[in-house]
Amino acid sequence: MKTYFMCMIVLFGITETVNIIRHHTDVVLVGAQGDLSRKYLWNSFFRLYLKYSSTNSTFRFFGCGRIQSKEGQKITNEILQDRIKCDKNDVNCVAKRQTFINVVKYLPVKTNQDFEDLGKELDSSKKDGVSTGRILYLAIPPSAYVDTSYKLYNCCYHANQNSWTRLVLEKPFGSDQASSQKMATDIYKYYVEEDIFRVDHYLGKSVVKEILPFRLANIEKLEYLLNNKHVERIEIAMKETIGVKGRIEFYDQYGVVRDVMQNHLTELLALITMDLPIDITDQKAVEQKRLELLGSIEKVESKKILLGQYSQYIHQASEEKDNTSQSMKTPTYASALLKICSSRWHNVPIVMVAGKHLDERSSFIRVLFKNDRFCVSGCNKLNGSNYDNIRQIIFQINPNELPSPGILISKSLFKPYLPAALKELAISTGHTGLYGQSINDFHFYIPIEDRDAYTAVIDDLYLGIKTGFVSTERLSKLWNIWSQAIEETALVEPRKYLEGGDQSLNFFIASDKLQFIRPSIIVEDLDTDLKQMQYNSIPATYLGHPLIVIEESDLLQALANHIHALVWQTIQSKQSFHLAVSGGKTPGKLFKILSQMQLPWQYIHLWLVDERCVSLEDEDSNFNLLHSELIKHVDIPYLNIHPMPVDKLGQICNEADQSDQAYEDSLNYFSKFKLNYVLLGMGTDGHTASLMPNSDSLKEKHKFVTFTKTQNLKSKRMTMTYNLINNAQHISVLVTGSHKNNIVMELLESKNHLKYPILGIKPIKGNMTFYIDFHAWLPKIVDIYS
Fold this sequence. Notes:
One of its GO terms (cellular component) is endoplasmic reticulum. By secondary structure, this protein is an alpha/beta fold. The protein has three domains: 3-170, Rossmann fold, CATH 3.40.50.720; 204-508, Dihydrodipicolinate Reductase, domain 2 (2-Layer Sandwich); 548-737 and 746-785, Rossmann fold (3-Layer(aba) Sandwich). It is 32% helix and 23% strand. The protein has a ten-stranded mixed β-sheet. Helix 21 (741-746) links the parallel strand 33 and strand 34 (767-773).
């Protein structure tokens, strides 16, 4: 890369020979106006220019695309002006910013002549005594890699002794083993392995680049622990809160496994489990150890992988493409169980999780060590367990709720030595725990300089450091791990999940496979035409809350599945589950479904949201319906059944008896006014529970249960108030029947909860979902299903 020329300096009769290094680099960015270039690449190339440009190290930058020169230069300049930012106090950055923008030239590369002109432009920078490097960066669709790399080879490849050429490719590098090998073989016709730089930007993230240095700095203590004698399991996750709207075509072709698991997450696994070479700066030694580790990972089988798809994916697909049949089988979530066949890692489960529209944005590697300690005294009354018993290391790649990416290590493990690029940071959060420990029980170390991943990638690219790039042999081993699972699950329809934290995705390790803990809360076995109609015409939310619209029978099953999943999840933490229900014909059908489910009724408390002022044995009584359709069919303790006391000693709704206060007292005693699940209905006038339009109960500020009566109501009712309902963890509103369509549409135009009481249901900390059947949502299609 470096060329020298001799300069004689004569000073006060002293003759000295000085070596002056001179080098020039041309950067060709094909796809200069694309999203990747806009968001990351141009700014990263500016950082490269800022760091390395000098009188002896010069640069030229060429943005290339398919549009003509004048328009292309205009768009490129606009991108640079918008994306290249400097701190106003950074004098050097401010001074070089405009210089950089001025040296960026746009050239079209649409025709063969365009490529020839590009080659001539690059050759014009050749000078005697100056070594030259060329970076050919393809930020274009992979389908164009081979053809474009061939044309760039013909016009722009450097074969001189003192020069180099680097071809840069972005993932995906094929969609399977065969296509990946074909792409590599085709590119090998023109370029050698030394020329090819495949980007995995995750390897450029600041914490990821410190994994090997951190392991080396603590080799005596940490390497002793990183094996099957001490490690309980390893978790590697990449969770995102956003979806893939606007990228459906890409995701239909690749899905989440190909998108992040086959590359990013498996690369992370290699870094944490590979044997350390003697010298981690020896690129060949590092690559060899990494290849050995990847070669020892068992192929992932279909039984070791779980797939999911967020509920609005098909709806989004229908907006971006005409045929969504392929979209039905596209996974946006996956969890997988991996095993390493080596004496070091034998029988250590490695769990990977990746998905879109999950409950948090977080990516990490978590090494959980075996708990071989038992607390006898000073245990804070934790019955033998203590925070100190948890020993773990977390490489937090995206910070989530932490102030920075960094490395968390349990204080009970050891106090680590730090490589030069890390420093300790004292932290606290608003949460009492993190990964099962108090935040105060961790050491936390962060990068001294948290560089953008692409800035690090471009820096290594310029210096020729290949450890952060994917070699052809490594790529083959990565595909070898995942190809079987991808092929076996190609026709599997993923489990549907609600956006934002659907707990039905929780799973457990069962011997050598993964299983979901509970059923999906969304019905999956709908007729294809029905699915298409649902997704093509229905939004993701209603009144700001998640919306599910399907046929009534499937809707009730989905709602029952939701309750079922939440019950089991709650009782796992030794808590009771408090379920409050409304009356009505449709809820009666739901009660019947629940009565046939396997539920731990000894832990479930049943409450009434509201009740008519009639005898509990009256056919109009909500409790009578609940009893006939559910209670008498299940083995639930008598003390877990809580009818509203409207019928007290033969007196019906006698306010002097303060029966509403008595129900409040029961709620306080058993649930502390914190219901786990409230099932509501909605009337044609917008009332819910027995909170009637313009009634005094809508203005109740203190009571949790009250009597309500309006001029249109022949008798009193007892009802829970907003104060109690809105404090619930989960609220579902069930709306069925074509006669409800008008009110469903009217509510979209109003915010008046006094006129439409359902609008006053606003969970304080919980969540709320509308379950609406097709008849209530789209009355015109009733005949299709009748």
